[in-house]
Design brief:
This protein starts with 7 loop residues before the first strand and ends with a helix. By secondary structure, it is of the alpha/beta class. Helices cover 38% and strands 14% of the residues. The strands form two sheets. Strands 2-1-5-10-9-6-7-8 form an eight-stranded parallel sheet, sandwiched between helices. The chain has a two-stranded antiparallel ribbon with strand order 3-4. Bound molecules: zinc ion. The site of zinc ion has 6 residues, from loops.
Length: 347
């Protein structure tokens, strides 16, 4: 590629609709809406479409326990749709779809690290960030982003990967996987007090990993401004100190004011601004190497526009759309939270 050309790799797969359960919030219509939105915003011609391969068993076992994978295989052998936990369904085809979702994020990472693309977007489902080393939960079967981060390290020798999770729910699975690991800086921005109830700012990692897990818990209703201030005041200095070689983003869109599962009150404009800041961080710190992977987001309009905005920002079009407008954020004092976070992380 020439120095002026920007290539954004785009990974998705028609099979992502094959994991589905009627009436469930995490249904196949979500990805259909994303595909439709990318087409409507004339973004498909701006992206370089790439075909994902399923993540290999070997790579999955670098992140998940054999017991976890065996349990999914046993569920597959049942040949019918089952619930793995109260809200995580599994259909006969789900394991193959989940492997393809993880493989899509891993493939996006490979494109970016190899220099075949500058940055990448993986529009995938099922989501991954609640899947722990040992178990599926919260609609997630395999931890897509964690698997991709391990690929970056094992296949390409990267020593420092930063994962930023802006899904409204705490990325407990990703935290679990890297909790004792100083090679992955995991930063989760989420609403406190909702599913999965973890993600207190006192959870900062253990052993070698102490200080490499960063939780930014926000009060319900806080809105764009508070969120963006946290990014400026906490995430920027942390990222500069860590000096990542790659930035991976768990991009959920359920922090939007219209989302049915949470109430963080962000707008599409605010979320796009957040993404813009992360892209700028990658630009400053690691040659622009950033991969966005889709996680939650249960209002279809929000999800479609949200992912389209990411695509527009990644390919340098810069224009984002927000037909839904701002929410009604409540005034929140962020001073005490900033103080506590600076103390917890030595900033
Ligand atoms: Zn979520």
């Amino acid at each position: 590629m020439t120095s002026t050309e920007n290539i954004t790799a785009y990974f998705t797969h028609p099979s992502f609709v094959e994991h589905d359960l009627e009436g469930h919030v995490e249904h196949a219509g979500r990805i259909r809406r994303v595909w439709q939105a990318l087409a409507e915003h004339n973004l498909l011609t701006e992206l370089r479409a790439c075909e994902p391969e399923p993540a290999s068993t070997e790579l999955i076992l670098e992140v998940h326990s054999r017991e976890h994978l065996d349990l999914l295989k046993e569920a597959e052998a049942l040949g019918e749709t089952v619930l793995i936990d109260a809200d995580t369904y599994f259909t006969p085809g789900s394991l193959e779809v989940a492997k393809l979702a993880a493989g899509a994020v891993a493939g996006a990472v490979a494109e970016v690290i190899s220099g075949r693309a500058n940055n990448a977007l993986a529009a995938v489902r099922p989501p991954g960030h609640h899947a722990t080393r040992d178990g599926a939960m919260g609609f997630c079967l395999l931890n897509n982003v964690a698997i991709a981060a391990r690929l970056a390290q094992l296949e390409y020798g990267l020593k420092r990967v930063m994962i930023v999770d802006f899904d409204v729910h705490h990325g407990n699975g990703t935290q679990d996987i890297f909790y004792r690991d100083d090679s992955v800086l995991f930063v989760s921005l989420h609403q406190q007090g909702i599913y999965p109830l973890s993600g207190d700012l006192s959870e900062t990692g253990a052993g070698m990993g102490r200080g490499f897990t960063v939780n930014l818990p926000l009060e319900a209703g806080c809105g764009d401004e508070t969120c963006l201030e946290l990014v400026d005041e906490i995430l920027w200095p942390l990222a500069r100190r860590f000096a990542p070689e790659l930035v991976l983003v768990s991009a959920g869109f359920d922090a939007h004011w219209r989302d049915p599962l949470a109430s963080l009150n962000l707008s599409l404009t605010g979320m796009a601004e957040l993404a813009r800041k992360l892209i700028a961080q990658a630009g400053e710190l690691c040659g622009g190497r950033i991969v966005f992977a889709m996680e939650g987001g249960y209002d279809l309009e929000v999800l479609g526009h949200g992912v389209a905005n990411l695509a527009a920002l990644l390919c340098g079009k810069g224009e984002v759309t927000d037909p839904l407008g701002p929410g009604m954020p409540q005034a929140r004092k962020i001073g005490p939270l900033l103080h506590a976070l600076r103390q917890a992380h030595g900033l």
